[in-house]
């Protein structure tokens, strides 16, 4: 497996771990609506991240050349964003979830990437110190 | 201030003033205050999501521009650059999603006009 695939796979695995940890913590300490918000937001953003990377991978070759149909790429992008907006609209207007829980769930990928970055920086700096 | 902006602001103020007059009654001040609150929410949502979309667009455009330039200069590093770009795009895009959530919360989770009316009456000591 190439390095780049490893990195993305690592972040993907991290996403699920972070979602599990936050979901477990919120189910213990917070209300059911908050936990549902975390889970729905987390699932949405993980799916969004996967579709985003799949779309870009399919659209560009490793050498940066554009391959595939331009219209299809744009349509996929807009469909993804519209779907996210629709789901967020539905869950907020119907009051199924706590808005803060939803925001926390939507931050799962951010937490995962920032955590990965901090860990990488820590590893690099400790290796330099040795 | 450009002429178009001035006309827009004056029109908004005029419309709100007319609406306040339309509410003329016992509790016209309260209703006018509620209307101003809704006006503020509408402006905040519109401007907020617009600015978020603009920032996201600029950020994504810059990221993709830099990634493609880097790949064109050094095609062998294309895979790594693309991976980093995807991660960066995910980070940038989430900001716009936050703005969207905040707009939805502002619009749909603020108490309705009746509730707001009650709150303002209470705050005025009525």
Task: Tell me what the structure shows.
The complex is a heterodimer of chains A (130) and B (126). Chain A has 5 helices and no strands. Chain A has helices at residues 3-29, 32-59, 70-93, 99-106, 108-129. Helices cover 84% and strands 0% of the residues of chain A. With 130 residues, chain A is mostly helical. In chain A, helix 1 packs antiparallel against helix 2 (32-59). In chain B, helix 1 packs antiparallel against helix 2 (28-73) and helix 2 packs antiparallel against helix 3 (78-109). Chain B has a single domain, classed as F1FO ATP Synthase (Up-down Bundle). Chain B is 87% helix and 0% strand. The A-B interface holds A 2-4, 7-8, 11, 45, 48-49, 52-53, 56-57, 60-64, 84-85, 88-89, 92-93, 99, 102-103, 106-107, 109-110, 113 and B 67-68, 71-72, 75, 78-83, 85-87, 89-91, 93-94, 97-98, 100-101, 104-105, 108-109.
List descriptors.
heterodimer; A: 130 residues; mainly alpha; 84% helix; B: 126 residues; F1FO ATP Synthase; 87% helix
Radius of gyration of chain B: 23 Å
Low-confidence stretches of chain B: none
Give the chain pair forming the largest contact, with residue counts.
A-B, 32 and 27 residues
**What profile does the largest beta sheet of chain A have?**
none
Mean pLDDT of chain B comes to 78
Domain module tally of chain B: 1
- Helix/strand order of chain A: HHHHH
- What is the CATH homology-level superfamily of chain B? F1F0 ATP synthase subunit C
Structural class of chain B: mainly alpha
Tell me the number of strands of chain A: 0
Estimate the mean pLDDT confidence of chain A.
84
Gross morphology of chain A is flat
Helix/strand-derived category of chain A reads mainly alpha
According to CATH, what is the topology of chain B?
F1FO ATP Synthase
Strand % of chain A is under 5%
**What Rg of chain A, in angstroms, do the CA atoms define?**
18 Å
- The helicity of chain B comes to over 70%
CATH architecture of chain B: Up-down Bundle
| Name of the level-1 CATH class of chain B | Mainly Alpha
- Biggest pleated-sheet summary of chain B: none
What is the first-to-last residue Cα distance of chain A? Answer: 29 Å
């Amino acid at each position: 497996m190439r390095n780049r695939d490893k990195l993305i796979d690592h972040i993907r695995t991290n996403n699920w771990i972070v979602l599990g940890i936050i979901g477990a913590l919120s189910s213990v300490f917070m209300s059911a609506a908050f936990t549902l918000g975390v889970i729905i937001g987390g699932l949405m953003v993980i799916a969004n991240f996967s579709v985003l990377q799949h779309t870009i991978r399919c659209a560009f070759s490793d050498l940066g050349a554009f391959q595939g149909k331009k219209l299809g790429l744009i349509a996929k992008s807009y469909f993804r964003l519209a779907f996210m907006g629709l789901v967020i609209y539905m869950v907020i207007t119907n009051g199924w979830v706590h808005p803060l829980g939803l925001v926390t769930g939507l931050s799962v990928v951010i937490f995962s990437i920032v955590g990965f970055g901090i860990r990488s920086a820590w590893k690099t700096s400790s290796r330099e110190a040795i | 201030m450009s002429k178009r902006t001035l006309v827009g602001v004056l029109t908004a103020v005029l419309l709100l003033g007319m609406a306040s007059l339309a509410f003329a009654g016992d509790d016209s001040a309260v209703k006018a205050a509620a209307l101003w609150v809704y006006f503020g929410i509408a402006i905040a949502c519109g401007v907020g999501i617009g600015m978020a979309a603009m920032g996201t667009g600029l950020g994504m455009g810059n990221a993709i521009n830099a990634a493609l330039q880097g790949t064109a200069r050094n095609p062998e590093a294309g895979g790594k650059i693309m991976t980093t770009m995807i991660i960066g795009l995910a980070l940038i895009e989430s900001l716009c999603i936050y703005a969207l959530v905040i707009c939805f919360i502002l619009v749909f989770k603020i108490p309705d006009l009746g509730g707001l009316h009650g709150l303002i009456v209470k705050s005025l000591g009525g």
